[in-house]
Amino acid sequence: MGVLRDLRMLLRLPDFRRLLTVRLLSQLSDGVFQVALAAYVVFSPEKQASPGAVASALAVLLLPYSLLGPFTGVLLDRWRRRQVLLVCNLLRAVLCCGTAALVLLQVPDWLFYLAALCVTGVNRFVLAGLSAALPRVVDERHLVTANALSPTAGTLAATVGGGAAFVVHLFHAPGAGADAATVLLGAGLYLCAGLSALTLSPGLLGPDDLPDRPRVGAEVLATVRGLAAGIHHLGQRPTARQALTAMTAMRFCYGALTVTLLVLCRYAWSDPTDSDAGLGLLGLALGLSAAGFLAAALVTPWATDRLGTAGWTTVCAAGSAVLLPPLGLPFTPVPMMAAAFVLGVTVQGAKIATDTVVQTHVDDHYRGRVFSLYDVFFNVSYVGAAALAALVLPADGRSPVLVIALAAIYAVVAFTMFHVERPALFHVEQEEG
User: Fold this and answer.
1) pLDDT at 97
2) What is the DSSP code string of 193-244?
3) Other C-beta atoms lying within 10 Å of the C-beta of residue 426
């Protein structure tokens, strides 16, 4: 099978394996930390979080550091990406230790959110740096396969991390002690991720030095101009711009459904006083979604070879639009778990295609800024989904109106990707670099 052959070829590349190791350890740690956040904010027995409170917590955690995305891009295009992966993971290890202390001290929620914001904010540098560095260790011919393997493997690692966090909770009495132990596990894994970056050569991941580059202070002050330049560059790359727009809309839908699923697990499908039961259902849903990501990684290279990146995105969006109502509207565990798998396939399939389009249609010295903008679009759309969920979700998470509206958005994405500049989109290799 061609995909498996390409995967074996990629894994024979030592620098790709090293970069993949950094990603796996980083996202394994992310999975642990994310479950720790969910356990503390939503599933703690002493907390009764409404859909509005859950959405507000997501907004507090996501929106501020999303707005920092352009700043990370300007710095990523200046700093050695290997050093970013090293320093940021070590910093997250230290911040996690501080967050665990705050959990044990039972500080006010706003102080915990501030500490969590610092950990997740640093994550923007790591994920954008990993994406921007990938073309430095893989040639263009194998980028689709690399984008299928790397982020998907990272997502699977995050799922494993979430499972490890759940096991930690099982061996501790529910409460602050279990939450703090989980955060400390994340700290240890972040330390391992940082140390693994040392296996890469300092200059391997770029960016290349530019002789006329201004000093650090001047470039930081020029961040807004750098953002404008990144947006202007996207304006000159219609394939990348259209792919990012479609992916942002699909991310919005996925975010709203994630909030819905979280509330269903907490209040509709388990005893609200049994935090472990709710976490177990959420873990099962995340595991099925990760299985969908893996399926997408195997199918997407084959699909994009035959349909093009926009054609595959069209199929993913259309499939989501058709399957979401019958799977989502019953609001029962079995169909919703099936929806978690299906949407894992479609969302990750579209993301792999979008990553490849951005990497191949954006110049290297703009790539860090564009991937940081990509993160901004992702997280702002997720916050928008959380705000929508706060407005329409009832206390138990069952909202037919929301499910139908999200299916309609998927349908609009499919229609747009099929009709807008169809020849150029379906044959991206003919577009000028």
Assistant:
1) 95
2) HHHHGGGS-TTTT-PPP-TTPPPHHHHHHTHHHHHHHHHHHHHT-HHHHHHH
3) 17
Q: How far is CA 411 from the centre of its chain?
A: 22
Q: Which of 15-29, 198-212, 293-307 has the highest mean pLDDT?
A: 15-29
Q: Round to whole Å and give the CA distance between 313 and 317.
A: 6
Whether the per-residue pLDDT at 431 is higher than 60: the answer is no
Long-range contacts of 404-408 (CB under 8 A, 24+ apart): 404/325, 404/329, 406/253, 406/256, 406/257, 406/324, 407/320, 407/321, 407/324, 407/325, 407/328, 408/321
Neighbouring residues of 131: CB distance < 8 A, sequence distance ≥ 6: 151, 355, 359, 371, 374
Cis? peptide before 333, omega within 30° of 0: no
Per-domain boundaries in the chain: 2-205+218-430
pLDDT, one tens digit per residue, over 142-173 is 787 887 788 878 888 988 898 888 888 777 77
Q: Does domain 2-205+218-430 have CATH number 1.20.81.30?
A: no
**CA distance linking residue 270 with residue 253, whole number of Å:** 25
